[in-house]
## 1
Amino acid sequence: MKKILVIFFSLALILTLSACNNNQQSTISDKSEQADTTKQTTKKSLVVYYSQSGHTKALANVIQKNTGADIFELELASPYPDNYNQMTKQVGKEQADHITPKLSKKIENINDYDTIFIGSPIWRSSLAPPMASFITSYDLSGKTILPFFTSDSGTLGNSVSVINSLVSSDVTVLDALVVQGSDATNAESTVDDWLKEVGFTE
């Protein structure tokens, strides 16, 4: 009789320990899944732009409104001259000599973003030097870049090629959006179509 009771209690103890172990594993698994979900949801989108006349700023605000992304305006430590001819001359030299002008502000949490919209005016058929400064100032490895531009001619020039030359090979640069400067404020439907075309929205 004693042997039977011993066997019975031994089986009961084994079953109890097994159930506790399974519950513990389930709890660990649940916590792991929650951690993965939390990790995925911490990644965000950021709109970074440089605007001289206000057109690119207007387009950036439309994109920010349509995506809910954070937004950041690039500013130069030494602003361009107010005189148009002097500014054009300076920009031309920066583009020709691959000079990246110093920026006055820094993004401290760039690693929080996996998708970055970068906006620039098209100057002399190319990327504005302040945006080149941004691209070369940060490690954008593994991120997705969505370029957008304002242009009086409505053309991209070699701006996208310049972006591709400045980023590492593991950065994904999607198709760019270009809008005439005068249309930037009312470009909501154009932005919506672009976001769908590049797969950012459905």
## 2
Amino acid sequence: MPEYDGSDRRTASGAGVTTTSVHVTALDGLVNVNSLFTVAIFVGLSLTTPGQHSLENPSACDAGLEVVKKLLVFEVVSFSFFLFSSLVAQGLKLAINLLNSKDVDEVFRAHINLKVLRFGMLASAIGSVMGCLFLMLSMVSVIEIRLGMLSCGSKSTVQAVTALIVLVTSALMVYISTAVYAFLH
């Protein structure tokens, strides 16, 4: 096995097994972002209580119990996807670090195939994207609870939901295209 020369690229023994610090950095970033989104989930849950009145005057625009139930389901599903994504990323980081460690006995040295690494990174990215989509849906429910139902046509509700959907969808498109590019190259 060649000695590590201090460069970014490291090659381990085995056919087609190559890892870089870029992978670890990308996985670190993914875990950090997932952690921030997880905090947002709990903040969203803590700010919303059943029977809360919206800021709109007509009480007919208040969100019902069904919206609060939707919010809870979307938050739990979002949390599950973020947790899945983070655990996969942490597992990949552990394998890469074991693979590249000079101090680990050969018995405990990880052997990770580049295809497995790519698949794991793709699974982690998909988990993050799905978590973001469900977090966005839960934020729509929070907006409806706080500002009034979309069906009432409140200008502030429509503006908030439109801004949320446009910005989050745009950011997800950039993230997805970058992830696909990294997966294919």
## 3
Amino acid sequence: MNRCPITYELCENNKYSEKGLRKIAPKLTYLNDLPFTAAELRQEAANRAKKLSIQGVQPKLSASISVVDQKFKIVDQLGTYIIKPQNDLFPQLPENEDLTMRMAKTFGLEVPFHGMVYGKDGSLSYFIKRFDRYGKGKKYATEDFAQLTGNTRDTKYRFSMEKLIPVIDEFCSFPAIEKADFFKRTLFCFVTGNEDMHLKNFSLITKNGKTTLAPIYDFLNSSIAIKNPEEEIALTLKGKKSNLKAEDFIDYYAKERLLLNEKTIAITLKEMQNTVPKWKNLIDISFLSYEMKEKYFKILDNRLNLFNL
């Protein structure tokens, strides 16, 4: 019995469930494999990198969906999806990111439509719909925190979690709401082993005259992909990147720096507690290998224990 890599539903002998295909496009009845192996996709990403604005450490490709051809097409312009193939340095990143983004959604975070698609060699690539595009070639104003703070790819780690707060206060239409959301994102990244949330992995978006935190992206458990990571967080919190404690996030960051009230913090922690069983079920049915699932469970349990959850 197969499991759909778009919805995680069982789909008998099919590669995708009907519901998964309809999520991509209402009239899609089948989805052809990407006509590339994982290695060929990485090469395509390298060949096209100079033409795209979505470069990064992880190979990425711009794509659009063709209902007529029933497949994703790799494009140089006007792509509405980003596709990330298997990485030759870090194992199972597509499966990892897809799972972690699903976990974020169950926690109430805003997550763009995403899933995985098979290549001709049977490998899975991660896809995510671009949240900054609409209509035909139109784009919402979106800036990441590196741009907003005058940093670059080279300096994206040279910042602190405390310094992000004035950025939210200055640019967001309703800072109090966004700071509560940012606290939730920060907690989620920590408990799911994401020690790579640097300045370029948080953005603000302006839609209909309102500036908010952009939907989340690039959320994954980087700790299970890296052997023996030395850090627990990308940007310093209270002057440190490791040996973090619950009080660093709650008493110091949430209360003292973000100025969140007791009720808001309590609601967030309670919601996390209620979501843990759903997270564990998602990990269990995910496309990660048994070994990677065990590593994910271990990090999740260790981090949750800090908060007595």
